[in-house]
Write a structure and sequence with these properties.
2 copies of one chain form a homodimer. The first copy, chain A, has 328 residues and is an alpha/beta fold. Chain A has helices spanning 11-16, 37-47, 56-60, 76-85, 100-112, 127-135, 154-160, 176-192, 279-292, 295-319, and strands at residues 2-7, 25-31, 51-53, 66-69, 89-93, 117-120, 142-150, 197-205, 208-217, 222-228, 236-241, 244-249, 257-262, 267-271. Chains A, B: Residues 3-118 form the Gfo/Idh/MocA-like oxidoreductase N-terminal domain.
Chain lengths: 328, 328
Amino acid sequence: MLRLGILGTGKIVQEFLPHLAELDFEAVSILSTPRSVERAERLAAQYHIGRCVTDYDEMLQSEVDVIYVALPNHLHFSFAGRALEHGKHVICEKPMTSNVDELRTLIDVAKKNRVMLLEAMTLYHLPAYQAMRRDLAKLGPIKIVSLNYSQYSSRYDAFLQGIVQPAFDPAQSGGALMDINVYNIHALVGLFGKPAAVQYAANIARGIDTSGIALCRYPTFQAVCVGAKDCASRQTSVIEGERGVLSIEGPVSCMTGYTIDYHDGQREVHEENNPPYRMVPEFQAFARILNEQDWAYHDTLMAYSLESAQILEDARRCAGVRFPCDSF
Amino acid sequence: MLRLGILGTGKIVQEFLPHLAELDFEAVSILSTPRSVERAERLAAQYHIGRCVTDYDEMLQSEVDVIYVALPNHLHFSFAGRALEHGKHVICEKPMTSNVDELRTLIDVAKKNRVMLLEAMTLYHLPAYQAMRRDLAKLGPIKIVSLNYSQYSSRYDAFLQGIVQPAFDPAQSGGALMDINVYNIHALVGLFGKPAAVQYAANIARGIDTSGIALCRYPTFQAVCVGAKDCASRQTSVIEGERGVLSIEGPVSCMTGYTIDYHDGQREVHEENNPPYRMVPEFQAFARILNEQDWAYHDTLMAYSLESAQILEDARRCAGVRFPCDSF
């Protein structure tokens, strides 16, 4: 059983904890800010987490094997980095870091300390995604990829009134690209690798992209990723090939199936063996990778993280979205 | 009754002629190549067209009021130009010309000869489009526009085997942008005017774009137009605003309705008073404009044509799709 230290008490942690019992992880401690101690204690009691701490060093000096970083984006780098330096494996929420420099630094620290660094990108571990990946060849040569994740954020109302929460704060590495389009970008990278060039046309307010369109050019096809927090739509994504089109309804990050329509009128509906919750297969994969020390798969996932980070950075540079920690 | 001379005997003319009786036009002659004389004579007999000609001068010297140019794209300029020089009004199929220079020349000739020049873009005259245009304000500030017209072309099979028909021939001003994405571009222009910048990522084979994605940046929102002849999809288009999203199923050029989904869960389904055929309201509008000499509306439509031509040219320049008649 891998001993897990959890950083943060936010939405994702609250969603994750009820599923912990199904996983090969034991949550041994949870870190909160002094302000959120009460919530941390409530969660600890409910999910039998041994220790609540507000001092990160205390957690790092305890018998924790893996640190799960579920903090606002801009804190990923320093908190993951300190864990790696202490010889702890790290599972870090997406996006792993604010920019490529930070990610390269983390990778170096992880290597030096011979520990694993894993990005919590549910997508790669979903059965529907994996089946889709195998089915791509059925489409014939691919020509157009169009991914849409537009979700009106409950926090956008506040943003319009001048209250800037982390998801819209450049100082906290927020924005539609980092927060939501990141899923589309990872899907592209996982399915097709890194594009030859990226352009990002964004709607910018208070220095942050509230929505935007990333155009990704590949040598033999063209792709577009729409991510929005200031408007919504049906979140339909399509991969169009010479023989047929594959459609996904809903965000790719929680995809449970897909449909292939061939030009000859035939249709295949794929509903995969879906997990109880999208984080379950992800943490099952992480447990296996960590237990078996599967460095090959670890490195494959790391390559996806690095390529995605490069796209996100290229896109931000193109749109002029700059974070305080950026050197560009 | 306006006396119409029809240039061409292709698919669009064959679709149009059955509806001519509903319109304030009398087809007095039809021009064909010597190779297509038989088809022209068959159409003339069926639809009571007075004269079949293979010599354009013969038509231009006859008592024709309006020339309808339904020839391959690269011939629009010269045939429309000669009509205008002869003092005939011109209705020209889309795209009006191969590039902006040609269009500016035609506009000058039309002005000098005090005749009208109208692009046969069905979209602007469709009741559903006009209702949608009025309803845009309901969406709140618009953030993302995504238009998709992907239609696998029956001619693409031949193209893959090396048989290049006009729609895929750079020498005939073909390609996915000119042939199919042009509808999305006109929709954008009609609804929102000219974008601040355009990028076009295209799939190129034999010097032509078989599909592509045009990214159009506006000061306050971002738009993407997908047009494909080498793959297909559901052809869903969306206009996403802060208050709701407007969706169109099927190509915008034949839109018969649209749906608005508000973020609060309310839905409006709009099915407009649809015409028997999409070219009917267009030619009704042209008859009115010509009969009433409505220069104001003529000039509005001409501005759309010019702005669209500029986008198409900018996009082709960006993707390196060049026609023999281009000076860039």
